[in-house]
Design goal:
5-stranded antiparallel sheet; alpha+beta; 14 helices
Length: 501
């Protein structure tokens, strides 16, 4: 049998049904310079056969091996004849007849049992690699929602989603991506709700990936998104099981990548990046106000520095006289043009932001607050930056923090610099050009073939209930038209009607 190219071949590769000494010798030849490979000889009390158990130390659960495999095989008599089924209490046992499958099972954390002169080896589900406990999502904190975030184990992430959707229609398609380190990629969807075209398109794109290994969902996104050159994210990455379950119930797909603590949602539209799970835990009027505030913050974070540059450089005549005098006094000692002034402050803000993220949490908060105050005061006193520019940059930075999705925040940060360049060259005309290009990009983009600008472009009035506003939940009895769900109805009008009605 031919082994994978990254394994050392030998002149004689024994069959699985050869004697135990030959099996052990071949294992040692396959896993050279692998001190964490454990090979344990044993005698099976139920059948009297010789056997060997092989596994990688650190990827397996020692308690499971001792209690569910070694103890039953060596000390508990099952009463069977030689050659009968082995008695073990481990949860999942898969027989393999090829060395390729055996090697893959060992590398994935299973322990493999070889029995003397048997033609198959048994992969035992004794995985137990190091993992952390369930914690609050770091990038998506919630005030009234659940305080559970995804982990780095794909099976546990699927279980977290199943807790919210305990329905037999929740289906899972499992794929393997990567040649050297295959990562399990699972597509979760509701069979009677999700459009089959989305599922097939997503599956085909994942199957077409040919790489050594996929480390996290961020790498997977670049291979499956429709337009990798666009600034705007076309798939949502979430750390929240409740958010993923909510999207699945709307007719979308969730992509779970083993070893990654985030889950991808597809297809999505532009307005989905302004929605938060807290929107559905608070009163609809408050949720509507907050959503409109986020949209306003998006435009402030993207356009405010460019507007400042355009007004000061080209269109100062539109400034009221009193404000113009204040602005002139503030910029009187500044030797730099508005564009350079804005770029210096924006780069300083980005440096402070990255420093706060990379440092430990208590130190990062201190650097962000103290650094911003000290640097802002110092540059103003030195006459390098005007007071108004500090206010503009501070307001811009705070506005970007309101956006609930990190990928969209990153897109706004890059978009801001593009608009600043256009404003410095053409003034308001440059800003209008940038705005039109942004709208054109949103309209032209696709997410798994679904229009990115929907329900605004193309217009879908029925879906406006959960875009700019969030109407009461009892009015949202239809799934979004944009998902092309097989079942459009998701609930009835369940609102309690009091006696006054």
């Amino acid at each position: 049998m031919k082994l994978p190219h990254n394994h050392q071949s030998t002149e004689h590769e024994p069959d699985l049904e050869e004697h135990i000494p030959d099996i052990i010798q071949h294992l040692q030849q396959l896993f050279t310079d692998t001190p964490d490979l454990i090979i344990r000889k044993l005698s099976i009390v139920q059948t009297g056969e010789k056997a060997v158990l092989a596994y990688l130390d650190g990827l397996t659960d020692k308690n499971s091996i001792n209690n569910d495999v070694l103890y039953p095989l060596q000390f508990e008599k099952g009463g069977g004849d030689p050659g009968s089924e082995l008695f073990m209490t481990v949860g999942h046992i898969v027989p393999y007849t090829t060395w390729a499958k055996v090697i893959e099972a060992i590398l994935n954390g299973d322990s493999v049992l070889f029995v003397d002169r048997r033609k198959e080896a048994y992969a035992l589900d004794t995985k137990g690699w190091p993992q952390r406990a369930i914690e609050d999502p770091q990038l998506e904190p919630s005030l009234k929602g659940a305080h559970q975030g995804f982990l780095e184990t794909g099976s546990q992430n699927i279980a977290l989603i199943r807790r919210y959707i305990p329905n037999r229609e929740l289906k899972i398609k499992q794929l393997a991506v990567g040649k050297r380190g295959p990562a399990s990629v699972s597509i979760l969807y509701l069979e009677d709700v999700t459009n089959t075209e989305f599922i097939q398109l997503l599956e085909d794109r994942i199957k077409a990936i040919n790489v050594d290994v996929i480390i996290n969902t961020g790498e997977l996104v670049e291979f499956i998104e429709d337009n990798p050159y666009s600034l705007f994210p076309q798939l949502i990455s979430t750390e929240r099981p409740d958010a993923a379950a909510s999207q699945i119930l709307q007719g979308r797909c969730a992509v779970v990548v083993d070893r990654s603590p985030s889950v991808l949602i597809a297809p999505v539209n532009f307005m989905a990046f302004f929605q938060s799970i807290d929107d559905y835990s608070t009163r609809w009027s408050i949720a509507t106000f907050l959503r409109m505030l986020r949209i306003a913050a998006f435009f402030i974070a993207a356009f405010l520095p460019a507007l400042y540059i355009a007004v000061v450089s080209y269109h100062f005549e539109i400034i009221p006289m009193k404000l113009l005098i204040t602005l002139g006094e503030s910029r009187g000692r500044v030797p730099l043009p508005p564009f350079v002034e804005a770029v210096l402050m924006e780069i300083t803000l980005e440096i402070l932001r990255e420093a706060g993220v990379r440092l430990p949490a208590p130190v990062g908060q201190t650097v962000g607050i103290v650094g911003g105050i000290v640097i802002g005061q110092a540059v103003v006193q030195a006459g390098l930056i005007s007071n108004v520019m500090v206010v503009v940059v501070a307001f811009t930075g705070i506005s970007s923090f309101i956006l609930p999705n990190y990928d969209m925040v990153a897109a706004v940060r890059l978009l801001r610099f593009i608009l600043m360049i256009l404003a410095s060259l053409f003034g308001f005309v440059g800003i209008i050009i940038g705005f039109m290009l942004m709208i054109e990009q949103i309209i032209a983009l696709r997410s798994l073939g679904m229009p990115y600008g929907i329900p605004l472009a193309p217009m879908r009035f029925a879906d406006l209930k959960d875009t700019l506003v969030r109407v009461p939940l009892w009015l949202m009895n239809k799934r979004p038209i944009s998902t092309s769900a097989l079942q459009s109805k998701r609930q009835g009008n369940s609102r309690f009607k009091g006696e006054e009605e």
